[in-house]
Each structure stands twice: as structure tokens, then as C-alpha cells.
Description:
The structure holds two protein chains of two kinds. Chain A is 49% helix and 13% strand. By secondary structure, chain A is α/β, with parallel strands linked by helices. An eight-stranded parallel beta sheet of chain A has the order 1-8-7-6-5-4-3-2. In chain A, helix 8 (150-163) runs parallel beside helix 9 (186-196). Chain A starts with a helix and ends with a helix. In chain B, the strands form two sheets. In chain B, strands 2-1-3-7-4 form a five-stranded antiparallel beta sheet. Chain B has a two-stranded antiparallel ribbon with strand order 5-6. The radius of gyration of chain B is 18 Å and the shape is globular. In chain B, strand 1 (46-55) and strand 2 (61-62) form a beta hairpin. Chain B has a single domain (10-218), classed as 3-Layer(aba) Sandwich (NADH Oxidase), CATH 3.40.109. By secondary structure, chain B is α+β, with helices and mostly antiparallel strands.
Amino acid sequence: xxxxxxxLNQDFLFFDGAMGTMLQNAGLKLGERPESLCxxxxxIITDIHRQYIKAGSRxxxxxxxGANRHKLEGTGLxxxxxxxxxxxxxxxxxxxxxxxxxxxxxxxxxxxxxxxTLAFEEAYDIFKEMVTEGEKSGCDLVVFETMTDLYEVKxxxxxxxxxxxLPIVCTMTFEETGRTFTGCTIESMAAVLEGLGVDAIGINxxxxxxxxxxxxxxxxxxxxxxxxxxxxxxxPNPITNKYDITPEKFAxxxxxxxxxxxxxxxxxxxxxxxxxxxxxxAVSGNLSERKSVKRKTVLCTPSKFVDINGVRIIGERxxxxxxxxxxxxxxxxxxxxxxxxxxxxADAGADILDVxxxxxxINEKEMMIKVVKLLQSVCDLPLQIDSSDADAxxxxxxxxxxxxxxxxxxxxxxxxxKILPIVKKYGAAVIGLCMDSDGIPKTAEKxxxxxxxxxxxxxYYGIPREDVFIDCLTLTVSAQQEQAQQTLKAVRRVKEELGxxxxxxxxxxxxxxxxxxxxxxxxxxxxxxxxxxxPIVNPNQQAIMDAIYAxxxxxxxxxxxxxxxxxxxxxxETKTEQTVIRTVKADEKHGDLDIAYAVSRGLKEDAARITKxxxxxxxxxxxxxxxxxxxLDKIGERYEKQEIFLPQLINSATASCEAFEVIKKSILSKxxxxxxxxxxxxxxxxxDIHDIGKNIVKVILxxxxxxxxxxxxxxxxxxxVQAAIKENVKFVGLSALMTTTLKSMKETIDAIRKSxxxxxxxxxxxxxxxxxxxEIGADFYAKDAKQTVDFAKQVLG
Amino acid sequence: MRGTLNNIxxxxxxxxxxxxxxxxxxxxxxxxxxxxxxxxxxSMPLVTFKIMDIDRKYGFALNGTNFIPKGKxxxxxxxxxxxxxxxxxxxxxxxxxxxxxxxISDMYSAVIMDSCASTAIENVCDNFQEMLENKYISQGLFxxxxxxxxxxxxxxxxxxxxxxxxxxxxxxGVSLSSSGIMIPRKTVTAIMGISNVKPKRRLxxxxxxxxxxxxxxxxxxxxxxx
Lengths: 797, 226
């Protein structure tokens, strides 16, 4: 018998219809676990599979949709037992037929990080348990279906690829908007899953066949993989729970799919063997050739899709090289600072973010995982994983939810043999640097040769041509003047002769010259004119971005100069606005705006500006102790007296944050260690994800000069204990918002006490009371951020 | 189905923000208005519901399920009802993401946005309830209050059972974390009775789960829902 993969390229291939609907017809109650029937009434399950095979299905899904560790918890059912029983039920039905058994895997039922609390690695484990058991029990393929979270699918696909030899089919569930509930687009699904090397992709559930059709067409346009469609039988009636499309009508709706060249179909909720029979009857003879997909270069996250069909900006700011403040953030685990750099670049117009976290004293692999997870929690731009360490690259690609770029390989054979297979495995794009063990060639010809070598090797490893980008390398023009032209020439040749996208970090060009901006911008424009489409720049630099906007007008990419006009129209407005504000303020304060006033009114820019001026005559500590803290105290008092309320308090805190940022930089530039009035660990306890309160407390504490080690939310007990010990922290703040998570607050406190580490613990959160805080062993109960500061002063001074 | 979000009650937002009277400056006032608009714009409100028979033969269960609402309060509310509506409503994942980003880049707006979103989900529920009321009134039927797990003596963990009955994961994209928190967080589950007797509406403070430690009550105020 031919294998499942051989069938994918044949004629039609019919899958089965709903299992749940058939079970409900057989008496399953709403809310009951259907998987239990595999053990208690296997004959019912086998009979359902038989009915589908009889109707013409060649692939039947096992009754294991929710047979994962998480969903079976508390039911008394065991994952392995259920899967084994389910595969046997299906195997019995397929025996003696040409049908295949697909191990059916639905969503875990708990959302992954960052919106949920389930770790990517844990999701991988849950799927690993299922797929290994499925293969052992004898299934022929594995199907991930009804998925809404691309990250979860990625965990599943990796689990299946790394632990079994089973073919993989993935179908996700979309709303009419073309997005899943978590915001994943059809195009992103196609780009990521094709990159991961699944065997077929598609759409199932949620909508009827008529509503899925436009979405299926989008999928046809974005993937060359075989496509699977399993629609619902229309919409369910909330009273009767019956679906509203008849088998005949359903079958009629499937004909246009066949005409699009979609060969694999079945049914989802509400469909029965009758539907499959009708589909087969209706579509026979209607199959058309599928149109070929135009290969294009895309990068994506689930919700953001970047088509490289013009100049796209790679932001370079997430990189410690030469940046003391960034280095400090990495050393102190100040993730907030790094997240801000991402948001800032996204707001400034970056399309992709380069991520480099390599520096001495930092475990690059661990930090890469942490930062990639952080960035995808606050920003939806695709990432460029930038490292020379293969392990760090792989770790970054693994946890990244989307299609990334790897920066980079060069022409050295060992390097390519190490990095390129990783790029292929995770379906990323890769940057090839035009250099090798002999260094950077002086001539454009030699660089072009290396580019060709890298391309050949990438193709050899199965990386498609469109995913290979070349960096012809920028050298400093003040040192090697003739090299600028060689770089530009090489860019042109790579673009024209190899047809590849090119990348360049441009700012290097002007090093050592005055008025660097002119040189950099001019070089950038020339490079783009020669075919550079992925400049790596600082998007916060206005001149650079202006040049790119202007270039897009001249290249014809910015139709009707719309984006250009929008950019500059906005700028004139801001200028006038600023002048107006300044005049008003000058009037109010007779031109003498002081730091206390700026902070109390939440004027961020002014707070920063005034601090810079103050630093000319006062020391950092003087400013903090004599100006900022008294100002904050006053605001705190007003808050307590209810003269102002939360938003104003925070507004002032953010303004004072700006002042602190200026002070921190000033201290770093002098080479001294950071000023800190003491370290504080903050965490929202295990199980709780309500962290806005904790984040407010953090902002306020930082404004009093404390260094906050923010462990985030849903923090494991041990992490809190370890952080307190490792950093020798004397003040720990814990937050919980739910009655259900107070228990883990108590356990965290117990664990800290048990460790013998001496520290004071403050707790807060909506459901806490002073009495309860005492009962669970906390030293303080703080009703708000202001009070937490008071306790911090008591403990740390 | 798509839910309707058309208004964010300013007073309620202010209460969530801890405002207890006094003057509000113009900037905050304007920002609340602006952020309310943004919340309305980026939310993707979804509602799912089922109409169930109440089975009193063996105690108190929803027919065709193993679900037994716990506590006296819910039974009291459904006293004159043979049918009830179980529902779940969410603002969707967009607002969840926006709140996360805002907390990094602009805490001030994040705090206001969080309060606006909490108010917004109530508006989605209110609109859905009103739609049902209008539908049933013509049949001479009335809708009771909206009762959620965690109110009165109905345990919070029954939220999980309601989510399972409504298949919220599939129907509106709502799942529970291992500690029972619904994600996206701006989500509500509730039960409403359908009755041919006009029910006494509105919960009293005493029946509220926050009765013991309600900040509004401490200040001699109320949350607006009583």
C-alpha cells in the first residue's frame, strides 16, 4: 500500500467528518470528555470510523482531539492509555481497507505565553507525549487541527518532527476576517508552517464552506503545499445545537474548491458520513489544476506579514555593542529597557528588528531566549536573530513565533555547514556576509564570488533562493576610501545577477568623519539605488528615515507619494504644536520651568531637558535626593489626600522616569556604577497574570531610586527565592489579584522564610486585607504603590 | 457571534481608576475620552450563548449537561425560571496585546485603558442582555439579572464549567489558564434566567462577593452596579 505522502499528489483525497457531532448523536453530554469513550465504549468509536470509511473517507481522525495532559487532568484518564485505545479503535476500522489513521490533536486548551501562562517548552512536552504514543500505537500520520495559536502549532510540529517520522498535517481555524482568535493571518500560517516543513496545511472549523472559500483562495495564493479544507456544516443554533447546512448544499459549496485545485477535503462540526458521501459525488470531475504560486520573500510574526518587495527597514538598536546603557540593562536583567527599545523602533517605522544580546559575562543562549520571548510579547515585528554562536541562533529561532532572519553566515565552509541546516530546520531566511577566513575581499568581484558560494550552499541545504540575503559589507570610508564604490558595485551585481535581496549596515561608512549624517545618508541612498533593499539602520534617526521615505517616492514604491506626504505633513504640525505649548508654559512659569513642576505635570520631555541642564551644576545624587524625591513625595501626599488620583500619579512618575534615564546615562558615561538606593524584587505570584498593579508599583519604586528586579507575572516560587538570594535583596514585593492565587502567595512567602534568606516582604493586590497579609506571614500590607514606597524607605532607607 | 460595544461609561472608568470625587483635570478627562474611543475601535467583542432547560427533577441541573450551579444565590435568582441563558463575552485578544505594549511604553495610558476595557466588557454584556430582553418581552417573558461565578456564594471555579459548556475556546477564543483565569482577560461568563414573572432586578451589596472588602463601600459609596 502506498504511504500517506504519496496520496497527497494524486487525485482527490477525502478526509472524514465530525467526531464530536457523531458522539453527541450517540448520547454524549455537553461538557463531557469524548475521549473517555475510546476506553469505555470502543465499539461506538470504531463504528463511527467505519461509517466514514464506507462513505469514502481515506483518512480518519482518531478520537483524541483533547487527549492531552492538560485537558485530561482530573478526569482519571491517562494520555497514553487514551491514545493507544483510540488508535486501536481507528485501526480496527481501517483494517482491510486503504484508509489511513491520523492521530488527531486539537489545542491544548490553555493559551501559551505571552498572553497565556503555558510555556512554549511545556507545550512541546505535552505534544511530544501524544505524538510518540500515537506513533507507537501505529497511527499513519499526525494532524494538528482547530488551532488558533501559531506558536502552539509550532511547538506541536517540532515535537512531531523531532520525535517521530510521521507525516504532519496542520489546519487552523479562522474567523471571517482571515485571522484566528489570537490574530494569526493565513499568510503567516503558510509562511511559518511551510518553513517548518509540514506536509499539508489548511483550514478547519468555525465557519461554513461558503465563508471559508475566500480564505482558502488566499491560502492557495500563499502556499504551494497541499491544502486541506474541513468546514463546519454552517452555524449552530444556540437552542437546538443543530447546524444549518444540509449535506447536499454543503457538497455544492465544495465544488469551487475543487476548481481552485484543492484536492483534500472533509468536514468539521455538524458534518456526518452523509456529508462526505455527498461531497465525493459533487466534486468528482470538477478538479482543476492549481495555479502555481509566485515565489516571494516574506518574513512574519503571526499578526504581521512583511513582504520584501521594496526597501524594508531593519532596526539595529537591540544590540549591546558600544552601548553602555544597553549593556547595563542586559547585566541587570532590565527587560523593560530592552522592550522599550523595540517599541520605540517599531513606532519610528522599523519593519524588522535585529536582536543581538552577545556580550562578555552574559549567557548568550539563555538571554536570546529571554529577549526573543520578551520582544514578541510587546511588538509584532519579525525579528533578525543576530549572533555568531550557532546555539544562540538555534535557541532564538526555536522560540520565535514567526519567520525570522538569521544574521549571519559567511563564506567559510565550516560556518555554513553549521548554521545553514539550522536555518533550514526552522524555515528562516539567512544573511550571507561576503567574507571568509581570508577576511573581506577588496574587490566587488571577489565579494560576488563569495555571495555565489553562499547561495549554492544554501540551495544545497534546501533553503529556497528567495530566503538568501547577501550583505556586501560596508567599510569605513575615512580609512578605506575606494571600498565604498566596491561595496556598491557588489550590491548591484548580487541584485542583478543573482537576483537576491541585499542587506547592509550603513552607519559604519561615516565613522571618524565630521557631520556623519551626510555621509551615511548619502551612502544609504546610493546603496538603495544600486539595489539595497534591507538597510540595517537606527530608525530613530530622522535623516535616515527621511532618506528612505524619499527613496520610496523616487523608486515608485510609494504610490502617489502618499506615505511621504503623510510623514512630512505630520512633522510640520508637531513643530507648531511644540511652539504653542512652550509659549503657554513659559507664560505660566515666567520662563522658569523647574523639575518639580515638570514632574508634577507629567511633562516628560521637559523633565529630561531640565535634568540635563541641572547636571551641569549638580551631582546625580543631589538631583535625586534634593529635587526629584521631594517632588515625588509631594505628589504622593496629594494622591493620599485624594487631590489627584492614579493616572496623574503615574503621569508624574513617567516624567520623573525620563529624568532618571538622563541621570543613569550620565553616571554610565562617567564609568561609575549605577546609583541605587537598594534592590527590590517584584513578582506577580505563580498562577496569576494580573500584573498591571505590580507594574505601577515598579514605576513608582524606580522613581525613588530603587533598582527593581521585575520577575514578571506567573512567577514560579523558586524563581522568587533564587532571585532574592542571588541578588541579596532585602525587600521583596509580591502581588496577587485573585482569591485563587493567594495560596501561591502564601507558598512563596513560606519558601522565602524557609530558605533562611533574611528580607522583608510586602504584599498587595485587590483581594488582600491587612489581616490576611499578616496571616500568611508578610511583613507589610501595602494598599497602593505609594505605601509600598513608604515601606521601602523604612527597610532600605 | 459578534458583540456590540458602543459606549464606555465614564463614571465607571473613573471608579476603576480609584477616583472618589473631587475635580478631574481636563487632560485626564480628555485622555479618558480618547482612550475609550481607541478601546471601542480595537476591541473585537464576541459573545456566545446557549439556552438551557433547568432540570429540577434531580436537584438543580442544566438539562443535557452535568452542570449544577452551586450556591443559594443563583437558585434564588432562577427561582421562577424554567430556562436560562448561559453566556460568555470577550473583548478579544487585540486589547490584551495593546495593554501589554502600553504598559511598557506608556503606563499612564495603560492604566486608563485597562479601566476602559473593564468597563467596555460590561457594555458588551449589557447590550447582549438588552437584545435578549427586547426579544423575549414580546413573548411576555423577562430576563433576570446577570449572575457570574464569583458573585454571591457561587464559586468562582464554576467559570471553568461554563467555559466548557459554551466551548468558549472554539466559539470566542477564550481559554483558561491553569489557575482558572480566563484569557483574554477582559472576558465575562454569566447566567441569566428567563422567567414569566417580572424579576426583581439588581443585586444588593450584601450578595456581592466583594462585600467584605469593597473599596467603594468603605468610602461610603457603591460600585454603580447595585
